[in-house]
User: Fold these one by one.
Assistant:
Number 1:
Amino acid sequence: MIGANILHDDVVILDKRTDLNYVKDRTIVAARLKDENQTTLKRWHENNSQVSLIPETPDYPTIQVKRDDVLIEGIYAGLVRGII
């Protein structure tokens, strides 16, 4: 998330709201695809029933899924830098 000034050793603080109705377009979210066991930090963009999870680092691809196939683990609220 270099483009969002979130660096490798930063600790991200998440708002634990997991209801998709709280997520606004272009918000940074911790998202997990229903069939996977990993969470990713990406920008949320929704268009009808499709969601794009957009990286802020050019090395990673955009993930496009149906809205029903993504779970929100939290909404980005801030970060702590320099404690690790």
Number 2:
Amino acid sequence: MIRGLVFDLDDTLCDDTRSYHAAALEAARALALEHSVDPEALKDAYIREADGFWQRLTPAELGKSTVSLRERMWAAALADLGITDHAAPRRAADLYNASRRGNLALFPNVDEQLERWRASYRLALLTNGFSETHREKIALLEIEPYFDAILIADEVGMVKPDPRVFLHACERIGTTPAQTVMVGDRYDRDIVGAIEAGLRTIWVNVRGEPLPQGRPSPDAVIGEIAALDAELARWPA
């Protein structure tokens, strides 16, 4: 019997890739005009820096200011294109942050799905985010009321795929791992640790990635969050 659902946020419930790519391009265009560089090249350089940061995220990075982290990412991206203007990273970060707020959106009908799931399950949100940005993001998306617990890496001091953070999510919503399904888009962050912690897992494989060879399989793979109901119907609530 399934009693709890634990959701990742970015690219699981909301279209994070679209929103941050759009924000990066908007900031890059403004800086490119000022420094005569290709805006697409600057955007790509920033995305490489940002993606690398999140892939390497460890508890040692938690608690730091996301403002300074974003400036650092933009500074590295600008340096890749030969721009050493000391004021440019802060300006780029400010432009990026403003655009990001305006580009956030849930995937279609997620709010309606959350309303249905809330009636049948205990729900937790588990994200490798920073309180400074993700509390604002959750408020802008207006999803906090759907969840019985919200766990942000920066606040709990643990980072997915650490199995302990999945166990902590179960404790917060009052379910056992065997009664709980982890739903997320990143195999290496959301699925592996949840399997090790004893949760059932549904991989929302929005990027169409192959299952890593020799690694444990999730209980189900879907291409978008809209397909989750059909998989949950296999297990009684």
Number 3:
Amino acid sequence: MNERTAVPLYMQIKEDIKAAIQQGVYKAKEKIPTEPELSAEYSVSRITVRRAIEELCGEGYLIKRQGLGTFVSTPRIHRKITEGNRLESFSTLCQSCNMVAGAHLLSRQIVPIRQEEQEFFGLGSDALLIYVERLRTADNLPIFLENMFFPYQTYRGLMTEDLNNRSIFQVMKQIDGRTVNDTSRRTLEIAKASPKQAQKLGISTGEPLLFMNCYFIDQEGHPLCIGRQYYVGSRYMFEL
């Protein structure tokens, strides 16, 4: 470490570890040395090392796994929005990256419909929706929280189906024969992870998330479902 430069020590350590990752000294999914080990290696305090590690985690180079240590992240997943305004499916995307897609059911309940949902589905104020929350993973690394809303009368079968490690669109097709063809509207915003979201995704509270709101339709333009997804910004990227 160069103490004569104006560059803070934690920043020098951060850049040194980043260079080691980029040069393949630390490989994807590999555990890096512990904070005490890095502190001894660089002859600095653990607080200095911790700040460097936290910034690298925030930028997506490293990921902390509780009780296991700190690991090099896999390259950020790139999801293309294809011609016709369609999204490449997450399962297909993971397969193309030689990763295993996962889906873990977190919550499933019947909820009242809201105004915006009434307008999209063409339903009355007394209608009910099925709300499904799942954690989507790639090689067991949490990537996004999937929040899906379906008309209860059409998709009541979702309340008893096994929704773990399955394409929810395939389950929908089995229930009523229709398939997702496109989205009638889609918005993308920046959000900050709430404490509950952070816990589920294994990130820090306040870490940047990409919030995508999608209104899915079938081939005839009829409404199917609504998706409100929260992606970990350091692990995911959209290609427009």
